[in-house]
Amino acid sequence: MALSDSDNATAAGGGKAQPVIRVVDLVKRFGGRAVLDGVNLEVYPGETMVIMGGSGCGKSTLLRVMVGSLLPDEGRVELLGRNLAEVDEPVLNSLRLRFGILFQSGALFNSMTVGDNVALPLREHTELDEETIEIVVKIKLEQVGLRQAVDLMPSEISGGMKKRAGLARAIAMDPEIIFYDEPSAGLDPVTSAEIDQLIMDLSGKLGVSSVVVTHEMDSAFRIADRMAMLDLGRILKVGRRSEFESLRDGPATGEESADLIRQFLRGDSDGPITARRLSTGFEEDILEAASGG
Amino acid sequence: MKGRAGQRNFLQLLGAGLVGVMCYVGGATFLLGSTLRWTWRGLFDRKVRLGRGALAFQMVRVGVRSVAIVCLVQVFIGVILALQMAPPLRPWGQEDKIANIIGVAGFRMLGPIITAVVLSGFAGASIAAELGTMVVSEEIEALQAHALNPVRFLVVPRVLATFVMTILLTIIADWMIAVGGYFTSFLVLKPEVYVNYWPQMQDQLRLRDFVAGLIMAGVFGVLISLIACYEGLRVRGGAEGVGKATTMTVVYSIVSIVGAACVFTMIFYVFGF
User: Fold this and answer.
1) What's the angle, vertex CA B162, arms to CA B161 and CA B164, rounded to 5?
2) Apex CA A41: angle with CA A39 and CA A44, to 5°?
3) What proportions of chain A, in percent to the nearest 5, are helix, strand and coil?
4) Is the residue at B29 inside a domain?
């Protein structure tokens, strides 16, 4: 149950703009278990939407459904005005050229240099000559501060550089939306802050809409225009960053979902999330096993 | 009661096994269909690139790097055949027929089949490991995210390269078996065996023996690469999944190679080819 969803296009500074992504009553099951259970979410042009949640809450699945890698079992996902469940492969591919994805590991093609990785979508989907592609590659790598790495292989660069190179590849086709899957995971604080700055620059300077899936709270509060909290496959709250900041810094209210979000945002060891983990019938299981039942 | 339960379990296991085999064959056939479609489009649709650079790279990887090992193994096969055949033929005064036997066995069957078995370990396992690692490191998903079809981009060059290179390697392999048999005759057996070795072989072999072997080699090449790509692309569960895919590629490839060889032999026998 969402606590509130007071935010819409106006909150994102987008006036009455149509959302670039609309998720309606989305259900996604794996082996009968609903990983996403009635998710509703809208992302507006130019905004950075951060989707937070603990491990296994379904946020990466939500991202994969949003980009068309997985199909919903129920509900629908509209991306740039098209229902993803109704489009065929060529239309989906034409949509894919309008958004970019930064994968958790960077997902660079290990058999190619960093430069060739960035050049690949340009070579495959444009009629640009090799000289122009080379210039575009240098521009994109410069944007992420990696121009010197153009001839290096992915195995020769660090984790942070891989993510930046992955970002350069994601923006190679000048996308309207960029999806980020755990952009700060496994990075040192400085590199993490650099990636955050890149995300903000792309959003601020180029007007790109961003969807960021993360559980790194420092990063989330740095880059978000709006935030969504996902728990057990449901959106608990969608709101402006300031609302989440107030919730994080305010006192406990006694309302379970608000306290759960507060615990997550503050990273406390005590709270509803911990209580839920401890109430899984562990003692009963042990006693049952001991009595041979 | 226990018997019935046991019977049901056995039937359930049998059914599950059959369903598993059908799903596997169905999936691999679907991949083959998709590979053929993209190959066709790559050849005749100007908008679709076949990726000649990738094809050349794979041909070097699958074929050129395997030449030495294939030659070595096939020379051994020639030596083994010559030494195995000599004793039973000697009492009948037919030792010079070794060349006939090596010719038929080598060109029709052992050339393609041993080459394919070597390639299943050398190239097939490496393709499965490579694609499996790409799945684990999200590279396949990244390809799709860039509107690039993994079958066109990864499977087509590997299947085409393995198809072509298995045929070319088999041509070399056939001659290596013959050479192995010749040197064994020269070094170990009587002079009349090696003096008449090449004329005897030439007298025995027909073009169809050579062609039959090459047809099988082409099919073996497709089987190896298709199984390797299929196993690689369906990897789940990280490094453990990659290891399993690599092992299963070799096992399924060898089983399918021998099975296909058996079917081909029956067809050739029935039609007198």
Assistant:
1) 65
2) 165
3) 40, 20, 40
4) no
Q: Which residues pair with A26 in a beta bridge?
A: A39
Domain membership of residue B56 (yes or no) is yes
Contact across the interface for B139 and A97, Cβ inside 8 Å: no
Residue-averaged pLDDT of chain B: 91
pTM of the model: 0.83
Chain B partners within 8 Å of A125 (Cβ): 146-147
Pick the CATH number of A21-255 from 3.30.360.10, 3.30.2350.10, 3.40.50.300, 3.40.50.720: 3.40.50.300
A with B: how many residue pairs have Cβ under 8 Å apart? 50
- Which tokens go with B223? 């089987």
In a domain, B16, yes or no: no
CA distance B150 to B47: 17
Contact between residue A107 and residue B141 where contact means Cβ atoms under 8 Å apart: yes
Which residue in B137, B138, B146 is closest to A96 by CB distance?
B146
pLDDT digits (tens, 9 = 90+) for B92-130: 888 888 999 999 999 999 999 999 999 999 899 999 999
How many DSSP H helices and E strands does chain B contain?
13, 0
Supply the pLDDT for residue A278.
Answer: 66
Query: β-strands A99-102, A177-181: how paired?
Result: parallel
C-alpha to C-alpha distances, B86 to A73, B100, B104, B258, nearest whole angstrom: 68, 12, 16, 26
Q: Which domain holds residue B153?
A: 52-271
Q: Please give the tally of structural domains in chain B.
A: 1
Distance of alpha carbon B201 from alpha carbon B98, whole angstroms: 9
Nearest chain A residue to B48 by CA distance is: A124
Give the chain A residue whose CA is nearest to the CA of B138.
A107
What's the per-residue H, E or C state across A234-261?
A: EEEEEEEHHHHHHHHHCCCCCCHHHHHH
Q: Is the ipTM of this complex over 0.90?
A: no
Q: Nearest CA of chain B to the CA of A169: how many Å?
A: 9
**pLDDT tens sequence across B227-242:** 999 999 999 888 899 9
- Mean pLDDT is lowest, of A36-45, A255-264, B182-191, for A255-264
Q: Report chain A residues whose CB lies below 8 A from the CB of B45.
A: none
